[in-house]
Specification:
Helix content is about 40%, strand content about 15%. The chain is α/β, with parallel strands linked by helices.
Amino acid sequence: MKQITDGELKTASPEQLKEICGALREEIFRTVSVCGGHLSSNLGTVELTVALHRVFDFPKDKLIFDVGHQCYTHKLLSGRADRFHTLRKRGGLSGFPKRSESEYDCYDTGHAGTAISASLGFAKARDLKGENYNVIALVGDGSFNNGLIYEALNSVKILRSRVLIILNDNGMSISPTVGGMHELLAEMKGEPPLEDVKLFERFGLKYRGIVNGNDLNELLPALEEAKEGLKEGSVLLHVTTKKGQGYSFCESAPVATHGVSPAKKHSEYSAALGEELCALAKSRPEIVAVTAAMTDNLGLRPFFDTFPERAFDVGICEEHASVLCASMAAGGMKPYYAVFSTFLERTFDEIIHDICAQNLPVTLCIDRAGVSGADGETHQGVFDLSFLSFIPNLTVAIPKNIAEFRAMLRLSADFKAPLAIRYPREGEEGEETAVEIGKFEVLHSTMSDIVLLAAGERCLTIAENVRKAALSEGIEVAIVNARFLRPLDEKLLAGYSHCTVITLEDNSLIGGLGDAVARFYRSRGLQTRVIGFGLCDRFLPHGEPLSLMEDFGLNFGEILDAVRGAHACR
């Protein structure tokens, strides 16, 4: 679409603004339909973003998005319309705010709960430097479940600065918003509305609302008033929007259209999780399932529908979910906590101290592990093997396919200690084989002294392709399914002490499988040659997962060269 200039936006008539919003909404829908991305959240905030750009002076003023799911209109209005067709493509526009992409993006976001803290930081920097600009945090009601929000609100008075917090209340995170704060906000929007807004004012915020965030006639004067109020102190403007606004099927299915992906090529591990947990729970009343606002994305809808009294969505509160699981386990239950790898990072402290230090039988079902692709740096699940690899009492499993994942879930039901199972979004169903804790699986055994030790479905596929190419050159290679990071299969590894062991992992090379295997041989005084292949020491951009893996550490040609080199040294 044609770039809408700042001057055009600020001088447009009410009718022209309505037309601009329609054009923006059409462009977002058209682009996301091709590229994938966050659809309903962006459709719901078109008018709100247009109004912000009309009233404030960006990039001098600072707009900080919480999460960033709703930043597409902002990108279209800030000099990037001609590149919007590259959204989420390798080398194209990110689906989230990125400082490296535009001066209009003042702060990178991708996880919930950070915007108010970040806005206070900008405001304090402004004050200390004697500068003059406005700072706006755009926060969804789903993020108001997150504890970091309240840590930030607690500092509003302490820091004695001025920020505008816009509470974008659409009753949704990814799944419908839940919890006490959701109920309070619902009462504030009720008929008659709740008049007691002292909760926010005790934090040092002047509360203003409720404003229809999809109606420019209400929004524009409300934002002007809020802007004026910033001269005296911090303001919270409460607006309501409709997720998926303008497209009836998005409005009626905001969960299904929150994130839209190109057509799937394979089955999803999440579907297997839901099926297996439901089957296990029928005969095991101690099994419970926990999620942090991602019931459907993680495959738990069947469990929630079948066992509602044993299913818990705690909202965007990953740390709380971990402690809840630990304490339920201490009370005799068998919790399964399903979470994306990137969001598991938030629970590091709780995994160590609450789950593992107490050796409690919590099973972590870690979805979107490894390179996740189009959502970029904040969503690549490439660190979990590294930060889980050194935690005592924790068993870490990496299935080779969906069938093996199912077997691991069934095995977990009787497992009496902490267990983490990490897996990508999609994969092959495959054939099930027996699984024993801490035991690898030899897939191709030869007399060769070159061993490919691969963890997870993607890396095993690479290993198979490398083996095929090596065989065409007369080089035999063994392949081992390294399906446990903790504990390692020490007996099998000891049998390969005379070999060149080449490890493959869809994880940061630092601290993962390769390091663990090398450490095993060193600890026994063995001179085994270990060559590790994993993801390089950097944050990975957005792009297609297999292409990113190839370019950032798991290169087929380089792995094949390592096999050739090992063969030449025999």
